[in-house]
Amino acid sequence: MNRVAATRPDWSTAASWPARLDFLGFGGDYNPEQWPRSVRSEDIDLMREAGVSVVSVGIFSWALLEPVEGEHDFGWLDEVMDNLHGAGVRVALSTATAAPPAWLTRKHPEILPRLSDGTTLWPGSRRHYSPSSPAYQYHAQRITRVVAERYKNHPALALWHLDNELGAHVSEFYDDDSAAAFRRWLENRYGTIEELNRAWGTAFWSQHYAEFEEILPPRATPTSINPTQRLDFQRFSSWSLLEFYRGLVSVIREVTPGIPATTNLMATTATKSMDYFSWAGDLDVVANDHYLVAADPERHIELAFSADLTRGIAGGNPWILMEHSTSAVNWQPRNRAKTPNEMRRNSLAHVARGADAVMFFQWRQSLSGAEKFHSALVPHAGTDTRMWREVVDLGRAVRSLESVRGSRVDADVAIVFDYEAWWAIELDSHPSNEIAYLDTMRAYHRALWLRGISADIVHPEADLSRYKLVLVCSLYLVTDVAAANIARAAKRGASVLVTYFSGIVDENDHVRPGGYPGAFRELLGVRTEEFYPLLADQSVVLSDGSIGTVWSEHMHLEGAEALVRFTDSPLTDVPALTRKAAGDGHAWYVATALDSEAVGALTDALLTESGVLPAVQAPAGVEVTRRRRDDGTCFLFAVNHTAADATIACEGTELLTGVEAAGTLLVPAGAVVVVQESSLAP
Fold first, then answer.
1. Quick check: is 677 catalytic?
2. What is the pLDDT of residue 304?
3. What is the CATH number assigned to the segment(s) 4-403?
4. 323 flagged as catalytic
């Protein structure tokens, strides 16, 4: 069977850092085309004042760069590039392909995206194109070449910013060009129609296909769609966006082989449409956009999760925070303004977790358009504002952290994360639709965060040999290779926790027979004969007094020991938490969604068994992380998210103030400290 379409690149390969950016980056999206020359002149002076070192330019400027097909106007952009260079500001120059101009959609209406119910999405906003459209691919690569040829030798050019937030707003495309591309992808993946029929289980409901040309995307149907067809379409959709990116980057590689290229991912807890692990090998440096969810009372912990995921996608290498906000966004139901110093905490928390550039959307707050109330570095109210003073202060802080650049985050814990498992577990027709892939994962990540423990979020086939503790949360879909990789981690000495509804199906979403948890039965030493999902208002009490929700199951011991049992009928005395020796390590299994207190207690037990320790002991609400350079130099970050002063134990130089820490250091309420430690950390 030909698996070319499903092959994963080596995401551990070191990325190329932007050319001419030999410092921590600070800046954001710059949209000078929205402003007259007088304002653009003021922008340069203000960028100097704020210490801006890098900006993204031209992201949505195609209609101005090419107002009529074949006729280009680069005068304004030439001037902007020259002015930025004169101010010492480096440029991440965009291909301007994120919003096709009106003349293009009028000439080629077939490029417009179509939803599964046949609805066409029309011009009037942005991202109104299908990545599989040959016409759009041609014109996008053409304008990319024109821009690259013009600016290939410009001294301000440091990085190519290809398109923008690929997959935002629409991530699955059901137009005829996408349907044809889907069929080609399937033929490449399976080789023969017989193999596709086997993988899709088309004997069910008379779905057998005689040839690839009979296959359609999973458009709207009377009832549940073939789950493997849906899973493959999500794989294809991620791949089709990546292929579009590859088409642009091939032009960039040809014209400017010495300038690295990237696109801004959206590796947040709300974005699941693209398998970013499969993208990483095509990005010279990983860049990410992150925005807080105002309604989340623990949004700073979600920020940490998203930053850890971005670092995992980057293979542990430094990455770029391409966008976040100085204050409120404009697209949530209630757009909360950030409190004093919250922007500073957010920005430096990203740096603490591996970012070597801090950028924002956008430089100057727009006066018109859909994002006019989205905050910016220069607000509507101008420079006599708290916001501007905080921006200048943050720029100063970033410059003081130059020595951090290039260091990597210390982490002894791995959380296994797989986009394909996410897609598969949240399909319909499952024992419970209440299982959300990220819920359990975030619960254990939160428990680690509260204890000052850093975790890498990694693909299940990544190298796990360096980790003392591995968390496998509801990994419903798992390949044989990944399951063996996780088992090896335990046998080498790690503590491995597997949570409920894991190991159930293979990569084709076929149930593994013989009893659950399928791929992990031997490792865990348990066998489940039947699931007992809980109703929305139902819970179970465990023998240690903790509470379980969402899930329970009828499990038998096959080599494991029961640490905790269910106490409620019909599962009275059935194991709920088990542990089994596995080589030099141990494998744990939990068969319900534990309450937060029980998650904390289990996390404590796992940390004790594995010997994982925090960077330093810190009071509750103080986030601690350590970054380490190859030469052994360590940087301790402490972010105080509370309203009370705190003290941590450390020795070295506090980089933001120059204060020497000799044993202890004050972390003021709401503040951040970064200590270059005077001795090598253990």
1. no
2. 98
3. 3.20.20.80
4. yes
